[in-house]
Amino acid sequence: xxxxxxxxxGPLPQKWDLHRFETKLVNPANKxxxxxxxxxxGLAGASASAxxxxxxxxxxxxxxxxxxxxxxxIAAQGGINAATNYPNDGDSIWRLFYDTVKGGDFxxxxxxxxxxxxxxxxxxxxxxxxxxxxxxxxxxxxxxRSFGGAQLSRTFYARGQTGQQLLLGAYSAxxxxxxxxxxxxxxxxxxxxxxxxxxxxxxxxxxxxxSGELERHAGHAVLLCTGGYGNVYFLSTxxxxxxxxxxxxxxxxxxxxxxxxxTQIHPTCIPVHGTYQxxxxxxxxxxxxxxxxxxxxxxxDKRPPSxxxxxxxxxxxxxxxxSFGNLVPRDVASRNSKEQCDQGKxxxxxxxxxYLDFADAITRDGRASIEKKYGNLFQMYxxxxxxxxxxxxxxxxxxxxxxxxxxxxxxxxxxxxDGLFVLGEANFSDHGANRLGASALMQGLADGYFVIPYTxxxxxxxxxxxxxxxxxxxxxxxxxxxxxxxxxxxxxxxKRTVDDFHRRLGLIMWDYCGMSRNNAGLEKxxxxxxxxxAEFWKNVLVPGTEADLNxxxxxxxxxxxxxxxxxxxxxxxxxxxxxxxxxxxxxxxTEENEARRDDANFxxxxxxxxxxxxxxxxxxxxxxxxxxxxxxxxxxx
Length: 637
Ligand SMILES: Cc1cc2nc3c(=O)[nH]c(=O)nc-3n(C[C@H](O)[C@H](O)[C@H](O)COP(=O)(O)OP(=O)(O)OC[C@H]3O[C@@H](n4cnc5c(N)ncnc54)[C@H](O)[C@@H]3O)c2cc1C
What we know:
single chain; alpha/beta; Flavocytochrome C3, Chain A, domain 1; 5-stranded parallel beta sheet; binds flavin-adenine dinucleotide
């Protein structure tokens, strides 16, 4: 199968306009004849559901949680990018586009990234109109701060709670449509499979997480807005319920999975502190606007930070990258922190931490100013670590945070399965091999508010639909397969808990397919994952029954998918014999230990096709063509 990204013709700045003009429209009176299924209520799903219902489509929206507001987007802290250029410091749509392509180490699609930058300003207007309380300057204009990989300020924020405020805005728009009867909301439902009838995605099978009942839902198109898969590592900054099940099961039904090995490891997280920890906490990148990252110059220096004089500190990011300093992109900052710790300069009890120090900023701007910008983050750090960051530097270490990989989609956000659209973190995204801070919220809302409302119309208007209600044979078959899997999990009755398997898988992934990778380690990981998966199906213990609320059963299904998906990540990492962004293969680095790309052989998105259980997936590639941006070795010096 040849992957067709359906990138419109024409000059880059006009592609989206021309495409919208050429895309077929659905007449307003006909929109009510179409049923659209939206899985997920994070920023991508909530914005899509609200926008589609507002247009007149009948929308059915699903989420795992008891309320749409609990989607993981609520946790986003630092901000959302847009190219408004309010601070007048040199921004433009072109610069946001360029920074994003470069930040992603030239592994994203030019046309998509340009569109993202183009609609970014409209997102801010939309959110302000909804009442999102962005921070403001004294004169009333919305305030901006800086994020990694940019030399200007284009990040809009609401203290350290930007995701929460944006989601409340999208949620209000969604609930308005629930009240209007255009969205039917299904909380506490887990989508366990896609139903494919006549080659088209025509529905889903869900499990009611309270009653255990399996349910069928039919529609003319399905939108997956189910977030990222960072929890394959067990420990991550993601909410505990984040998982790969929806996208992985769609992959097994024919949607290609792109760049699964592209994982973002965020440099500023609270370090791991115990074997039985189940969650890691992010300290927003915005903190690097004012916090300075350092380690002692001498390996093994265990003095408390207050006793290490200035002359014996190494502000290694400022030293190595004078232009961007502490605001280098995440992949660069993470690798550098790891390098310092590997050299024995790490701080804290484990030696796996570096300092993020606000002393200079507090002296310069005063405590009140720092508190105003980051108060909730400082409080969170204090509560978790027992240390007051106003008095002593924070200790931070890289942790799994975001996944750039996801289901492959074309310019219209449609996967390789007809009628299956994928939005937000769940798709393989516009971020290439590394996402710049504050770009995920932008992408999720761009997809939901400003892209899908147009592109889905083109699909619906141009497609012939045969009857495929819930009585169609495809629904019966899919439901039977889901039931079999649920019963198989319960029937094992082994001795090891689901979390035990998940924790072990996470360690394998972190050690061999994490911040730094090598071929021998990846090969080893493949074997270890296969062995662990075999043991899982012989020895997992899932107590309780299927006909009830059963969180062990929910987790078991997700971990079973992670155990297969982890191997796909490793296969993808092995196939990409270069380093780029978050994918760092030790064999491919510059003399200064930066990622060394191989544009001649790997300037593509890798898209994997499921070939059957126990078989290696088929490889497809979408060549990435750069007509507007010159491919260079990324430099932040
Ligand atoms: C701690 C933290 C802070 C962050 N801060 C920022 C930031 O400041 N700026 C930024 O740009 N990005 C940030 N990010 C990234 C950003 O928050 C996410 O990428 C983004 O919110 C993802 O939105 P989404 O709508 O794609 O998915 P999510 O918000 O993850 O929503 C997924 C939805 O899918 C549902 N779901 C999942 N699986 C199923 C299933 N099988 N069946 C039914 N429903 C399902 C869930 O219930 C949920 O409603 C941060 C991430 C983290 C972890």
